[in-house]
Specification:
Length: 437
């Protein structure tokens, strides 16, 4: 009877022609349950045959060599095994010849050859076990590969199947690096119904440990309930792995975002520091080196203005914009009269709102009047743009807020500038400037 104890890896009711190796735990558990029922039916048939031929109702022996009683008994025993082997052997498309051989020895002219039937079944079972439990997997280390190879050799060389499976199981327990594997395998082997198997899964995968965080406890309790609903093992484990992976990926993503924000802040700090140093250097150079420029009023008769002189007249807004990164440079005048005379043209040329025709005050150049210097409608630049070395000048806070979405779509989007700020960097004249009325 060698092989019947461990032929539970056959898969009745499943198409072996489409089987892949190795089988999953769910598949093996299903096979074991199906095999156990088939084995009980076989033993019941054999017991019934033995009881009948041991009873007074059985026909008497007619003597050798052609005893009808013995032939009939042997035929009925062979039929029981034949039905069992036909239904439970792992027949695949590659095993058609063995299945034909089983039919031949069962229908032998001299009567069923039971010993040969056992041998054929053993051969098919050994090959199936070798393909299943000895299949290599990506995570196999040297120890696992070694005992799988040894198991395969034992099956090929005809070693007793029970001894071979025992060696394989003991090797699994010996080399397993997962705590609790031995207890899990033993409890699973002892399980006789879905409730007991579910409890074995819960004890292995969902056992609450003292050091578990509240999140880990919730995770384990959640999947313990899933196991209790008899959801297949493979589906539950797959869902557990996916959720754990997604959670870890979410943590990594949040950490990466935090690092990016820190890097952005650090980069902005470095740029601001560099701009400050550049400004200080320009001021220093201006103080040390005489510089001569023309008055911005075209009709001015003077050839040049010495801007190294302590008393110079320049546009405060343009000076501020230069400090913020605009490349146009400062605008100078030789006198207050020329500054006032040039004011209207200068405003139109240098202080245009970046929103153009969409400006809240278009066609006017901003709110004008006292709003340029009081706290109600001060001009300024976009904070997000300034960090990325883009100068976006707005005529007023009101215009900025009213056109913020359009500005972000037109400027931020194409330059990958994050949308963080909701207020302007307000215009602020230099400390050493005196604003003339």
């Amino acid at each position: 009877m060698e092989g019947i104890e461990y032929s539970q890896r056959s898969r009745p009711g499943v198409d072996f022609n489409h089987a892949t190796f190795p089988y999953s735990l769910d598949e093996r558990v299903s096979q074991a349950a199906q095999f156990q029922r088939a084995k009980e039916e076989l033993e019941s048939k054999l017991k019934s045959i033995r009881n009948f031929y041991a009873s007074p109702h059985a026909p008497a022996h007619s003597g050798p060599p052609n005893c009808t009683r013995c032939k009939t008994k042997n035929r009925r025993v062979a039929e029981a095994y034949y039905d069992f082997y036909q239904a439970n052997a792992p027949w695949t498309s590659g095993r058609g010849r063995e299945k034909e051989d089983l039919d031949k020895v069962f229908n032998d002219a001299e009567g069923p050859q039971l010993k040969e039937m056992h041998r054929i079944f053993q051969s098919v079972l050994r090959e199936h076990l070798k393909n299943d439990i000895c299949a290599t997997q990506p995570g196999d280390d040297a120890d696992i590969s070694k005992y799988k190879s040894a198991t395969g050799n034992m099956l090929r060389n005809g070693r007793d199947i029970q001894d071979t499976i025992k060696y394989y199981t003991e090797s699994q327990l010996q080399y397993s690096k997962v705590p609790g594997t031995a207890e899990f395998i033993k409890s699973l082997q002892g399980a006789r119904n879905p409730t007991q198997r579910a409890q074995a899964y819960i004890n292995f995968y969902c056992k609450i440990e003292p050091e578990d965080t509240p999140q880990q406890k919730n995770f384990k309790n959640k999947y313990a309930r899933v196991f209790e609903s008899f959801t297949p093992h493979d589906e539950v484990v797959k869902a557990m792995k996916k959720e754990a992976s997604d959670t870890q990926a979410s943590k990594v993503s949040a950490l990466q975002q935090e690092m990016d924000e820190l890097q952005m802040a650090f980069s902005a700090h470095v740029k601001a520091k560099a701009k400050k140093a550049e400004k200080e250097q320009r001021i220093h150079d201006r103080e040390l080196t005489p510089r001569y420029v023309s008055c911005n009023l075209e009709e001015c008769p003077l050839d040049s203005i010495n801007v190294s002189n302590e008393e110079i007249i320049e546009c405060a807004i343009c000076e501020w914009l230069e400090r913020k990164g605009r490349r146009r440079g400062p605008i100078y005048y030789c006198s207050v009269e020329h500054a006032e005379e040039d004011f209207a043209d200068h405003e139109k040329q240098e202080h245009l709102c970046c929103m153009g025709r969409s400006c809240t005050y278009y066609p006017a150049i901003g709110p004008g009047g006292e709003g340029r210097v009081d706290s109600t409608d001060v001009c300024g630049i976009c904070y997000d743009c300034e960090i990325h070395e883009v100068v976006s000048f707005f005529c007023s806070e009101e215009c900025y807020r009213g056109n913020l979405d359009a500005h972000r779509e037109q400027v931020h989007h194409d330059r990958d500038i994050p949308n963080t700020a909701k207020h302007l960097i307000a215009y602020e004249p230099a400390n050493d400037m005196e604003i003339l009325p």
